[in-house]
Amino acid sequence: MIEQWMHDKLKKDIGEARYKHSIRVMNTSIELAKRYNYPVEEAALAGFLHDCGKLKGKINLLKIADDFDIILDNVMRNNVELIHGPLGEQIAIKEYHVTNKNVLNAIRYHTTGREDMTLLEKIVYVADIVEPGRRFEGVDKIRQLTDKNINLGLLYALDRTIIFVVQRGKLVHLDTIKARNQLLILKGLE
Ligand SMILES: [Fe+2]
Ligand SMILES: [Fe+2]
To answer: Which domains does the chain have, with CATH numbers?
Structure first.
């Protein structure tokens, strides 16, 4: 389904461990696509490439983002872990020749989420958090909720991200807060 050269390139660019994680995210994205009636090919490609911007080795993410003409906001500049989302989108376009906007947005927003996420953005965001290699406390609850209602799974996945970031003393991206608030309001209306 995914061409062999893409497998070879991804493995070389992000390293073996992250490549394996990417395969698991691809498989979980496929499962969620089937569960929520989303085109499987798109979900597979987005899951496979979601971390293509997580280049291995000591690299200057600020410089690379600049090379790709990515305009970073203040939070991204001060929490460089988030940059591999928008950077991944540009690498997907320029080096993997991806043109599908749904796939590109799912790659771009998998680090922060955002308000009005598309179904594919939700699928990849959640798949990244619940893929079978993830072992943190509460992951099973997120898996169960995701199977019942993707918005609920996403809400708890966002909570987990926010808690994780706060515990490490890092900046929380406003898009993550906005995504969570929107889902929480929606949940209250259900
Ligand atoms: Fe990532
Ligand atoms: Fe990931």
So the answer is: 4-189 (1.10.3210.10)
Please give the C-alpha separations between residue 183 and each of 150, 152, 157, 172, in angstroms, as whole numbers.
11, 8, 11, 17
Whole-angstrom distance, CA of residue 81 vs CA of residue 177: 17
Residues within 5 Å of ion ligand 1 by Cβ? 51
19 vs 67: CA distance, rounded Å: 24
Cα 181 to ligand 2 centre (Å): 23
Measured distance CA(190)–CA(27) in Å, rounded: 30
Q: How far is the CA of 37 from the centre of ligand 2 (A)?
A: 23
Whether the CA torsion 149, 175, 172, 120 is positive or negative: it is positive
Ligand approaching nearest to the C-alpha of 130: 2
Q: Which pair of structure tokens corresponds to residue 61?
A: 């993410």
CA of 185 to the centre of ligand 1 (A): 26
pLDDT tens for 70-91 read 999 999 999 999 999 999 999 9
End-to-end CA distance of the chain: 38
Q: Give the tens place of pLDDT for each residue, 40-68.
A: 999 999 999 999 999 998 789 999 999 99
* pTM of structure: 0.96
CB 41 within 8 A of CB 83: no
